């Protein structure tokens, strides 16, 4: 997550915290979603205002279309081609006192030299909801979103 903070709001349970920033080292934005509820998984839909989407197809070059609301962008059938990267952090066995953290369900372990492993995201369809498990933290990178504040 970069230094440029974006305005966010969340409507629903009071157990979700959400933050948005311009991405630090790549295009797009990064969301941080924290579920403080220890029992319920929350599915979150993302709506973004004042953006430009950049959709890359294997058959065509990148195209840009200006939209004012994310919900309008969903009507564009090409939006389904866009992907987002998700990084889900949870405690092992749901135990918040555990010293083992899981990234997308896999233990994060350094090797004998202390090298951190490659952090592999889960790729999801751009328009599908973000599923946030109980007591978890999710980072979502959406490279196809261009926000004026991030340029």
TrEMBL record:
<keyword id="KW-0378">Hydrolase</keyword>
<protein>
    <submittedName>
        <fullName>Glycosidase</fullName>
        <ecNumber>3.2.1.-</ecNumber>
    </submittedName>
</protein>
<dbReference type="GO" id="GO:0016798">
    <property type="term" value="F:hydrolase activity, acting on glycosyl bonds"/>
</dbReference>
<keyword id="KW-0326">Glycosidase</keyword>
């Amino acid at each position: 997550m970069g230094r440029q903070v974006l305005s966010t709001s969340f409507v629903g349970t009071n157990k979700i915290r959400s933050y948005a920033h311009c991405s630090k080292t790549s295009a797009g934005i990064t969301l941080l979603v924290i579920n403080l509820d220890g029992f319920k998984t929350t599915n979150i839909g993302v709506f973004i205002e004042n953006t430009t989407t950049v959709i890359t197809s294997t058959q065509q070059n990148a195209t840009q279309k200006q939209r004012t609301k994310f919900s309008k962008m969903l009507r564009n059938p090409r939006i389904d081609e866009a992907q987002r990267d998700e990084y889900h952090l949870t405690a092992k066995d749901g135990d918040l006192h555990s010293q083992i953290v899981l990234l997308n369900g896999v233990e994060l372990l350094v090797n004998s030299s202390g090298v951190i492993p490659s952090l592999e995201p889960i790729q999801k369809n751009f328009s599908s909801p973000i599923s946030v498990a109980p007591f978890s933290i999710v980072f979502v990178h959406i490279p196809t979103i261009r926000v004026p504040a991030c340029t």
